[in-house]
Amino acid sequence: EAQLVESGGGFVHSGESLRLSCAASGFSASSKYMIWVRQAPGKGLEWVSVIHHGDITGYADSVRGRFVVSRDDSKNTMYLQMRSLRADDTAMYYCASSVTTPGGFDSWGQGTLVTVSS
Amino acid sequence: EIVLTQTPLSSPVTLGQPASFSCRSSQSLVDGYGNTFLNWLQQRPGQPPRLLIYKVSNRFSGVPDRFSGSGAGTDFTLEISKVEAEDVGVYFCVQGTQLPYTFGQGTKLEIK
Fold first, then answer.
1. Distance of CA A87 to the CA centre of its chain
2. Which end of chain A has the lower number of beta carbons within 10 A, N or C?
3. What is the reported pLDDT for A31?
4. Which among A107, A118, A114 has a CA at the least distance from the CA of A5?
């Protein structure tokens, strides 16, 4: 069974950095589309980034130039390096993947909370 | 950027009655290969999102058959044939046709 587990969230001050991890099990993340999605408290879902085969990446305008997504295939893990964090980056960060469906993002982690104090 | 607009934002429904949610896109979600990557997610209170429907009308494994999706081009609908108490939550449409991927603002299903 496919499983995703996020970690690395925490409390930081504005301008600081944080690295999130998304450990996959039950499937090979290297061959799948993997995304980060965030949800500010009481708000909707916001797509953050994507990485897929060939290490092709994409970013939302709100994080481009500050966040970098990467993957370590030997650890079956995706990362999100976040720099120059701002108060409006405060959110629950989820990773998700299209494991069995084309473009369906059918597997989701439980999320990791990032709080940025101004 | 493709904008997805969901209506209504809130839907009070009586148990056992149907519910219908709309998702309208600012442009066609059909890609160059004829695929339409429009999905529906359910988020129960305190839970991560969960995939219900992918590529407009395909029910994901384990999703009850009271959930169905339809539509084409720019107009899409999620229907619940008979609402149950466990269906309470927020329903989001999301497009994966074009970067940046975008979500609708969500429709909150409540029980009357």
1. 18
2. N
3. 85
4. A107
Q: Would you state the pLDDT for residue A30?
A: 87
Q: What is the pLDDT along chain A (118 residues), one digit of tens a residue?
A: 999 999 999 999 999 999 999 999 999 988 889 999 999 999 999 999 999 876 789 999 999 999 999 999 999 999 999 999 999 999 999 999 998 888 889 999 999 999 999 8
> Nearest-CA distance from B101 to chain A in Å?
6
**What phi and psi values does residue B86 have, to the nearest 5 degrees?**
-75, -5
Q: Which of residues 4-63 of A touch B (CB under 8 A)?
A: 35, 37, 44-47, 50, 58-61
Classified as helix, coil or strand, B24 is strand
**Are A102 and B54 a contacting pair, CB within 8 Å?**
yes
Interchain CB distance below 8 Å, A44 and B100:
no
Question: What is the DSSP secondary structure assignment for residue B30, as one 8-state letter?
Answer: B
Contact A96 B49 (CB under 8 A): yes
pLDDT tens per residue across span B26-85: 999 999 999 999 999 999 999 999 999 999 999 999 999 999 999 999 999 999 999 999
Q: Which of A34, A67, A105, A110 to mutate to test the interface with B (most CBs of B within 10 A)?
A: A105
DSSP character string of A46-87: EEEEEEETTTEEEE-TTTBTTEEEEEETTTTEEEEEE-S--G
Cis omega (within 30 of 0) for bond into B48: no
